[in-house]
Write a structure and sequence with these properties.
This protein has about 700 residues and is of the alpha+beta class. Helices cover about 35% and strands about 25% of the residues. Strands 3-4-5-6-13-10-9-8 form an eight-stranded antiparallel beta sheet. A five-stranded antiparallel beta sheet has the order 2-1-7-12-11, with no helix packed on it. A five-stranded antiparallel beta sheet has the order 14-21-22-23-26. β11 (about 155-160) and β12 form a beta hairpin. The mean pLDDT is about 95. The protein binds beta-D-glucopyranose.
Length: about 700
Amino acid sequence: MLNVTNSKIIELCLDDERFSLTSGTILEYKRVLDMSNGSLSRELVWRSPKGKEVQITVKRLVSFSHRHLMAFKYQVKALNFSGKVTVSSSLDGDVENHTHEEEDPRFSATLEGLGLSVSKIIADQEPVVMVQETCRSNLVLACAMDHRLLSGSDAVKNIEQEHQKVTVSYQLDIKQSESICLEKYVTYYTSLDYPVEELPELASRMAAKGMAKGFDILLGEQSEYLGRLWDKAGLDIKVDNITSIEQALRFNLFHLFQAAGSNGRRSIGAKGLTSEGYDGHYFWDTEIYMIPFYAALMPGEARKLLEYRYYILDYACERARVLNHVKGALYPWRTIAGEEGSSYYPAGTAQYHINAAVAYAINKYVEMTGDFSFILEFGAEIIFQTARLWEDLGTYNSRKGYLFCYHEVTGPDEYTALVNNNFYTNLMARWHLNYAYEIARNLEINYPDQFKRLSDKIELDQDELQAWLKAAKNMYIPYDHILQIHPQDDGFLDKEVWDFKATPAERYPLMLNYHPLVIYRYQVCKQPDVILAHFLLPDQFSLDQKCRDYNYYEPITTHDSSLSPSIFGIVASELGLYEDAEYFFAMTSRLDLDNNLNDTYYGVHMANMAGSWMNLVYGFGGMRTTNGNLSFNPYLPPDWQGYKFGIIFKENRLEVEVKENEVVYSLREGNSINFRHRNKDIFIVEGEKVIVSI
Ligand code: BGC
């Protein structure tokens, strides 16, 4: 993911003194992210080295309603002087990525010197346009800016071009106590979405359109857009007047609202759009952690995120051939455009479980929304192509009673790599093969024409369907009869347990302080593996079994991956381990806001952000969808007085409010809804509520 034209620059000069936070004196300073109207502001009072005092207020937004547009409002008030003021606003094309400066293996960028270069600047009049190009793939980006000065009609305007930068400046006189206000409108368009020759025109037209609306109207639209989302999310957390929990959840949701690719050709980077961490690559994070959130609150976005997987399906098929599979598709472990971006295959490509993650997310999306048309248009092909890889990858192992086994794969826990029969992988592959078979049968009976067309296209026959079923039926699921737990893989329990007592706090995360080969030799987990399988497939084992597995893996998990605490928290809730659940919820909910991992500088942790919402809804609320049915099993965490959340299930907007002795289910929109509260069937029609005691 490349850094694009820097359009945020607005500079201020008071006569001959340039405003800077590092000179003069800052008398007041405040930075506010307003999550109700989606704007970021700074308000400050500055005294220049020569004693001039100004109040500067900057507000900016990236529009949700007009996806190409960003707007700024820059206000300056002269507090104790009258004089000349210059406000200069720029587009700077001299940008580069910084990841090459890092030694952290999570930043593997090889982009040094390979960023965007300026190919054209159109600066004879406003909107000013800068066109940039990538140097190898020749992708083109056009960025335009337009301005409106709301005060100071006698201002002298000037447009200047210097190397890779273009600046529009306004010089004017200001009187003491007077204010000036500059609005700036910026747009970005790329050749990924539009023909190259149209980009400058599209960019400038949108900038002019933004300007015609004006900042305050855009802010109003932003507020309405977010208002609808907040209403659906329905968050209300009551914990002894502590607002920090709700604030944290809202902060996480706010990031989720703005991160989703919404055109079917983008997904969500592990760090969203907030930094260069992981090079902006997309992982299974979207499917396993984020899709549940989008399916429940932004179903349109969820569909688009899944369409993205269809968009890159051909690459996944090619990838399977590269790995010598004769048929099927293997999704890359990390990618944007569709090619595999992992450089270290043991903790990358070998994570075959990503195939199951994609199929699983499709299933959850369809269960939550009832949108079976997705299966017909895109889903079936993805599910079949990825399922057939499972059949190709495994083998009937004579030494394990001819059960179906997988060798040399890596499960979700990256502190163990290239293993045989990773519990998670085998369990998810079994689920995936069964699901693919079920979908095939469903299409064959109910949509025979579509099924014929698709099976002809991908050369799928009845023998192959039977082979899927046979592999699923005979799947080997590792179990240790002495410890009565599921080993993470065949060799996991043979290893010594990591010496946690001898590991000082500063040697975590382990991956930054020990060679992977050292870590691989011990029983130590970066993140849930067996426990994640229990969360995703909750009906396969008894609570006792899940409890034994939890008690075994929790103490040997470092949570060095931010994908860890939320899952432990949800499973702890299911097992009635309420203290653990609260502990993990606290860890997950404020992870970025409090910079708990000390790495938020590299971008927020999107999977964890969605995980914190899941902790509330799936953990405390006990929500599950199984075979298309919705159920809840809510409880009130010990220190809480109540909480509320909303979800959309098959176009019905349901609100769940958990109080000290009762749960109130209200159908806010939709015709009627059926679900289970523990073992009780509940039916509600629009506008009504049902109250159950707990
Ligand atoms: C985790 C992966 C995850 C990736 C991106 C790694 O640290 O182990 O499971 O997909 O980060 O978030």
